[in-house]
Amino acid sequence: MTFPVTFPVIRWIIVGPVDELETEKRTSVIDRLTLTVSQNIHYGFKSNRQVKYKPSRDSATFRHQQARENPQVLGLALTVHHDTRNKKLMGLLNTQGYCVPHGRTLLLETALANAVVENTKQFRGLYVPPFLKKGTFVFFAADNTDFAEDTADGKGTTHGTIVAVYQKADAPGEPVAPPLTIGDANSLSVTPYHVQMMHCDKPKPQPNKRTKQFAVNKDGISGNYQQTHLGWVIAYAVSRLKTGENSSKIPCWAGYNSLLSTSQPVTQIGSLPLLPEVAHEWSTLLTVIMQTSELRRLAVGEEHPTVISFDMALYEKVVQLLDARPDLKRTVVPRLGELHAVMAALRALGTSIENSGIDDAWIEADVYGAATTRQILKCTHYKRSLRAHIYSYVALYELVLEEFFRENPQMKEDCWQATEQVEAACSEEDKSAKAESAKQANATLLEALATAEMVKAFKEWETQKAQNAMFRSIMNYLHRVETVLFFVAASRNADLALHLQAAEALSKLFFAFDWIKYKRLWPRYIADMHDLRTNHPETWKELEAGNLSVTRNDIPFVSIGADHACEHLNKQMKVHSGLIGISNNANARQRFFMATPELSCLSREFKSQFGIGTAGKNTEHPGLGSCDIRRDHEAIDKIKAAILSHGNPVTAEGDKLYNMITHAYVPQEYVPQILNINDTGQKLYEDYVSERINGEISLWAPVKKENNKMFMSGNKKSTVKIRDKTVDLKETKDLYGRLLILARSNRHIDQKHAVGNYEFTQTPRALFAPNGDILPCTDKSKLIHLLEKLAKEVTADQDQPQGGGEKMAKEVTADQDQPQAAGEAPMDIETLGSSQDGHGSRKIALVYGMVVVQKLTKKPATLVTVKDLSEWFYGRLMSLTRDYDEVVLVFDTYKPDSLKRITREKRRQGKDPIQYQIRDDTNIKNIPMSRLLSHDQTKADLTEYLASKTVEYSKDSPKLVIASAAGHTESNSQLHFEGNNHEEADTLLIHHAVLASRRNPSDAQLVFFSPDTDVLHMAESDKLPPTLGALKQHVLRAHIQARVWGQADIAQQEFLDPLQNGYYKDKDGQLKPVTTEFLPAPEAIIEMTPFNGNDQEEICDRILTEDVQYPSFLSKEAVLIIQKLLCRSPQLRLGAGERDAQELREQLFFREIDWSALLARKIQPPFVPTIQGLVPFDSSDRSSPGRRGHQPVAAAFFSLPRANLGINVSLLS
């Protein structure tokens, strides 16, 4: 549409009498603006007849004139309608003259839907996109699409299946179908159209017999790909290592690769009308396969099979379907979507580094926040996750290269010179020449690397350094990131060879980190793709020619996988503000499903005219922009600085792994798994191919979970095994609620017996906290105050010993008749001297060392390192015991299998323990003491360190200083002590008090500095008493503590076997208390869990995809009717057909029901509830909630009598 008069006038008003602007871009902007204003004026123009016409009502406005419609007002109306479905917004735009009314827009949408229906009539109900041409390869993708429909009850929302169609644009050949003919619609009624869904039952898993053995690629990525990637890493890192210069001009990974890559042919993108069925139904999948196969025949005949991409959930079902249908298997090639594979790999990558310090560096560097970091680790945002790993990759690789160049300075000089050419090429202003210059400079760089044998030297150096755990862990991460980048690069360059090589390299990630579905089917996908070379050589050539990916513009390195493009198409079809009333209006639903794909194309074309939602306005990759390059460099600088602020992890030596930010140790038993995880994954992949792809084991046989431990160990499950079924139980499971449901309907459950013998919780509440910890004795500390009070009353006339101000000091007098201590070297008492002032008896201080440490709640600024802490500790200890002749310092022993482990975990209040290195230079300035002491191994190392430092600092002291930690005792004199196996400092204090009394004069005074007193304590509880099975185990555990305290004065104590006294070992070998001898609830109640999972998301996923496991007590008839009622397809569900409830009445489950008698109320109910003392609830009566009839459910439960609660008191003796 042209405007020969209006256009020049409007243009003159906007820019004045100027014919051409300075740039072509500016000229196009002004021309577009002028055309828009001209069309709006034309649409608002009123004829002389309209102006002079006198309406019958003053409120009447002008009538809409279709003759004045133009592309501007029609395109804007359809675009706003497609994006928002907002009638009010369209009304506002219409009143301002920018678009046609909402009613007119609906008529246009109806006309578009009718045109699509007319197209399907030409091809027996199949819609053929107008762009599809004969003789050119075509491929597809299918996915589920959910529309956020707003319904009154939240039910009946719209679900559908989208099928995307791809073919190279500007391909030769005639169109398969004529263009759509869009006429006028006089009403909103759409021509009736219905897709005949093909019936398909769930197929039985079939063996996949291969005629040719699949050979695993053990060589990894080809050398040319690796060299190109290494060229970027070297150029990027070396250019950034130049100090004192401006920021590097070399772009990051995507931008650099776009300079080295060539453009791919643009792909034409379209879609079929949406199928109003969920994608994961078998009938839907078969219908999709048949539709796409027919389109493929119309385009290329039988020359090629149907190539169609799916996500993993759909691919799994399609493989089962094709294996069961050999006729389809020969003509259909399913592909696993690249986007979903990369996201799965990034999730595995996130699992591998969580709590390693890399994720902490993102947060500390202020590059990403804590919430975003969680998104990155879980890969809920694809681009952000990929970019974050690239940043970490570069930052760590720079640290590695710095160390490599430090040991190989000549290599650095060679790389430096070649990198200068690359940076010069990337700095060129001429965009057309930049790519060619970059390719030449990169070739020069690779030649220099080859001449210097850089790759060989670096690999040898890496092998040499791999003996250090931190270095090897970092290199493993870098190699995993490289694998992901190679796979993404294969899609962006539509490179089939690299795609298959990188896909095999990704396998180790899926196998090592237990991505079960990918473990099962990823090798199958790789093998099937390799089979294309021999089974369908022409199709193989088409994939090699670039039909592996979808390309939307001429910019290099921007192609994406077919499933990724389908997601984009899916997003374009989504309505931002949701749908209203579509599901309940058959005509509106059909109009929406038929017109939306073509309406989406119209909307996209209209926006592209204004540069919205299209990359057409860009002539180069976004990663080449100066702002993007600067952003990338700044982010990498921040991450690198954050890592180095805590030390260089690349230079760390030894076999220990720790968090590179917090320096928290990784449990040593996890280290081998972490360091060998890549090799483990590769070995598992090779074994799987040998056994299932090439072997006799079924592809569908159970796949074993490896449960490899990484930096962050997973949560543990609590399971109960009921016959052949394992049930996951959590505290949120309402076991008592299930009892109330089953008590009347199941004769095998006696409610009173069940309440008396089952806890109905995972942990007995009278003895355990909800998290499984034994309830602590909170009142035992009161005993020491009572003893002090008693001592003051008895010895009121005596002077109390000085304890440095400590209220916890307790004094005793040595027994003069004690013999020489066994295991202690004889020592002349005279050599010890008397008190320091030369008068009075000797005074011995026995100090519980950890109490001194724990009193440091707020560290002074002078405490920067662990050595500073030891000096403070020694000063505090000497100040505390300044009036004493002898100091005995005692610490707890922290055993890995300690029975006190649960108590210590309780004190951490649910926070994860963090292990730190204990050495002189460990920086603890910003680490709170509570966090420093959170890990048992850290405390064990710290107590040994403090004990050793105390003896070292006191070597010239006139006092006798003895320090005992970790079962060893040393002193600053010639005294020698045998080892001990005491775990608690409480008993060890008693032991050393005995030794001190034996080597000192009879009048020596012993003063204890300890706030702790362990006593046998039984507290009354207002909770429901424990069942007999729980109480018996609790009494057995009391025997262990009593036995320990009975041997306090013995160096080598004898312990009871915990496994025979109320404890058991879990799968990790940790001791845990036995809560009860019985199940938490009767079996029939526990079985009422059809789906289990680690979290809500996993449970929902299993509900959607897995089969229900029915309890064994249900009859066959009951299972049959429940299966029909739980059919996932609403259209196929029992009672959803035209016969309605009659289908239910005919089921075998109701065969004994006389429906006529039931309707007439002539049938006696199976049981009649007996109501005694209950008053119907009245929400308005709140005056006396405690009266009879309003008794709370919990109170009613607790009032039930327990069975068999008699306790044999002799058990406690």
Automatic annotation (TrEMBL):
Disordered: annotated span? 796-824
What SUPFAM superfamilies does the annotation carry?
Answer: Protein kinase-like (PK-like)
AGC-kinase C-terminal domain span: 1151-1213
Q: Which PROSITE patterns does the record associate with it? A: AGC_KINASE_CTER
What keywords does the record list, in alphabetical order?
ATP-binding, Kinase, Nucleotide-binding, Serine/threonine-protein kinase, Transferase
What superkingdom heads the lineage? Eukaryota
Molecular function terms in GO for this entry? ATP binding; protein serine/threonine kinase activity
Please state what the protein is called: AGC-kinase C-terminal domain-containing protein
